[in-house]
Amino acid sequence: MSDQIQFIVEKLNQEPFRKNYNLITFDSLESMQLLQLLNDVLGEIDPKHAVDIREELPEQTAKRMLSLLGILKYKPPGSISDLSAFRQGLVTGSKPVIHPVLHWLLQRTNDLKKRAYLARFLVKLEVPAEFLQDDTVADINKQYEELMEGFKNLHKECEQLKTSGLSTAEIRRDISAMEEEKDQLIKRVERLKKRVETVQNHQRMLEIARQLRLEKEREESLAQQKQEQKNQLFHAEQRLQRAQLQLKEMHHAVVDSKPESLMKKLEEEINFNSYLVNEKLPRELESKKNSAYFLQKVVAEPAMSQSDLNVLEIKMNEVNAQINQLIEKRMMKYEPIDSKFSMYRQQASIISRKKEAKAEELQAAKEEMSSTERQMLQKTSQAHELEGSEVLKGDEFKQYVNKLRSKNTFYKKKRLEIAEITAEYGILQRTEELLKQRHEAIQQQLQAIEDKKGISGYSYTQEELERVSAVKSEMDEMKGRTLDNMSEMVKKLNTMVAEKKASLAPVIKELRQLRQKCQELTQECDEKKIQYDSCAAGLESNRSTLEQEVKGLLEECVQEESNYRYINCMKRNLEIQLQRAKEEMKAYVSPDPQERRKAIREQYTRMILEQENLGKKLREKQKVVRESHGPNMKQIKMWQDFEQLMECKRECFLKQQNQTAIGQVIQEGGKDRLVL
C-alpha cells in the first residue's frame, strides 16, 4: 500500500499535475479534495471532465466518473456487494476506493487518453427496436454505423502512417528536390530547343523523332501482347494436357474396371461429397462465422492494454475451471439410465471423430494428388519443350526400369562372353596361322610328289568329293532327326495334357470347397470385427472416462496442495503479524516508560514531533533570513564600497611615497654637483 501511495505522489508531482505533495500531505487530504484530485486526473484523460465538483451534485459526479471508468474498462476488485461498496466509496471519497483508481489511472495515462478519444466516436448509441421501424430513423442509424466504420478505417490508416516512419519534413525535402529536377529539365529542354532551331528542317526531324518514339512504344506494347499471348497459349496447352491425361486415366479406368466397381467407386465419391456438403462444410462454415462474429466484436471494442488481456485470461481460466468442475459433478451424479446410453454416445462421438479425421486425410490426399498432377503436367510440358520423349509413369515406369535392369545384366553377361571369345579368338587365330603354314608346306610337298608321279590335281579332286558326300550325309541325318523330334514332341504334349487334367481334377474339387469355406470364414471375420470394434470402442470410452477422472483427481490434488501451502504461508504471516501486534499492545499498555518508548506508535509519534519541531525551527530561521536579507545586502554593499575606498587610499599612499623618494634622490644629486 505504501508503494502504491508513493507511486501516486511521484506521478502527481510530475507534469502536467505538479501538485508538490509528499506522503504526509497526500495522506492528510480530505474526501472532497481526493474526489477533486481524481476528477483532475480524469479531466487530463478526457477534457470534458475538467470541472469543479463543488458546482455539481455528488450523484452527478459519481455517475459521470462511473461512466468514464466504464468506458476506460476499469475493473473494481470484488463481487457484486463489493461493487455497491465501490459506488458508495466513490460518492463519499473513501481512500481505499480512490487510491487504487488513481494508481490504475496514473499507470496508463497515455493509453487511457487514446481510449477516451476513441470512445467519443466508437461508443455506439443503442436505439430501441421500435424506433428502428421508422425508415428515417433506420437510414440515419445506418449512416451512423457507416460513419463509425469509416472513422475506424481512417484511424487505422493514421496510426499506420504514424508508425511507418514518414515525416512531413522528408516529404517536403523530396518535393523540393523534385521541383529542382523539374527546373533543371526545363532549362535543358530550352537549351536543346535553341540548339535545334539553328538546324535546317528541325520541325521535320522533331516529327520523325516523335513518330520513332510512338513506334517504339507500339513495339513495346506489341511485345508485351505477344508475351501475354504466349503465356495464354502455354496455359491452354497445359489445360489441354491435363484434359488429355484425365481422359487417358478415364479410359484406363473404364478398360480395367467393371460396371460394379465403377458404381461402387461413384457411390463412395457421392457418399464422401454428401458428407462434406451436409456435415463437415456446414460445421466449418458455422465455426468460421462464429470466429468472424467474435473478431468483429473485438474490433468494434476500444483498444485493450496488456493488463486488460491478463485480466481476461485470468477470467477465462476461472470459467474453464468452473466448467471442468461442473462436468465432473455431472459425471459423478449421472443417473443409471444415462449410464446405459453414455457408452453408445461415446462410441458415436469416437466414430464421428474418426470419420472426420479420415475425411480430412482423404481431402488432404486428394489435394496432394492434384498438386502432384499439376507438377507432373509442368514437368511433361518442360520435357516436350526440350524435345524429349513422353514421360513414363506408374506401371510403365516400373516395367521400363525392370527392362533396363534385365538388359543391363544381359549386357554384362554378353560383355564377359565377348571378352572370353576375343581371347579365344586370338589363340585360335594364332593356331590358324600355324596350321596354315603347316598346310601350305604339306600342300607344296604333296604337289611335288604328285608332279613326280604324273597325277597333279588328284588331292584337290579327292577333297572336293569327300566334302560333298559329308554335306549330303549331314543333311540326311538332320531331316531324320527333325521328323523324330516332331513325333516325340507331339506324344509328349498329349501325355502332358492328360496328366495335367488328371492331376488338376482333385485340386479343382478342393478349390471349390475352399472357396465356400473362405466365404463362410469371411462372413464370420466380419461379424467378429464388428464385435471387436464395439468392444474396442467401449474400452476406449471407459479408458477416456478413467483418464478424465484421473486427470481431474490429479488437478484437484495439485490444487488442494497449493491451497494447503498457501494457507500455511498465510497462517505464518498472520501469526507473525499477531505476534507483532501483541508485542506492540504489550509495549503500548505497559506502565514502564522505557517499554512504551519501544512501541512503534510512540516512535512514529516522536519522529513526527521531531520533524514538526524541525520544520518550525526551519520556518522561523527562514523568516529571520527573509527579514534580515535586505539590511544584510545593504551592509555587504557598504563593506564592498569601504573596501574599494581603502584600496584607493592605499594606492595613493604608495604613489606619494614613490614621488618623495624620487625627489630626495634629485636633491642629493644637486648638492653633489654644487660641492664639485
UniProtKB/TrEMBL annotation:
GO cellular component: ciliary basal body; intraciliary transport particle B
Any Gene Ontology biological process: intraciliary transport
Keywords per UniProt: Acetylation, Cell projection, Cilium, Cilium biogenesis/degradation, Coiled coil, Cytoplasm, Cytoskeleton, Differentiation, Phosphoprotein, Spermatogenesis
Principal subcellular localisation of the protein: cytoplasm
GO molecular function annotation: tubulin binding
Key word Phosphoprotein present: yes
Coiled-coil ranges from the UniProt annotation: 137-246, 309-382, 504-584
Domain IFT81 calponin homology: 3-126
Xref: Pfam families: IFT81_CH
Subcellular localization(s) per the UniProt record: Cytoplasm, Cytoskeleton, Cilium basal body
PANTHER family to which the protein is assigned, alphabetical: INTRAFLAGELLAR TRANSPORT PROTEIN 81 HOMOLOG (PTHR15614:SF2)
Family to which the UniProt record says this protein belongs: Belongs to the IFT81 family.
Function: Component of the intraflagellar transport (IFT) complex B: together with IFT74, forms a tubulin-binding module that specifically mediates transport of tubulin within the cilium. Binds tubulin via its CH (calponin-homology)-like region. Required for ciliogenesis. Required for proper regulation of SHH signaling. Plays an important role during spermatogenesis by modulating the assembly and elongation of the sperm flagella.
Protein name as catalogued: Intraflagellar transport protein 81 homolog
Species for this entry: Himantopus himantopus
Taxonomic classification: Eukaryota, Metazoa, Chordata, Craniata, Vertebrata
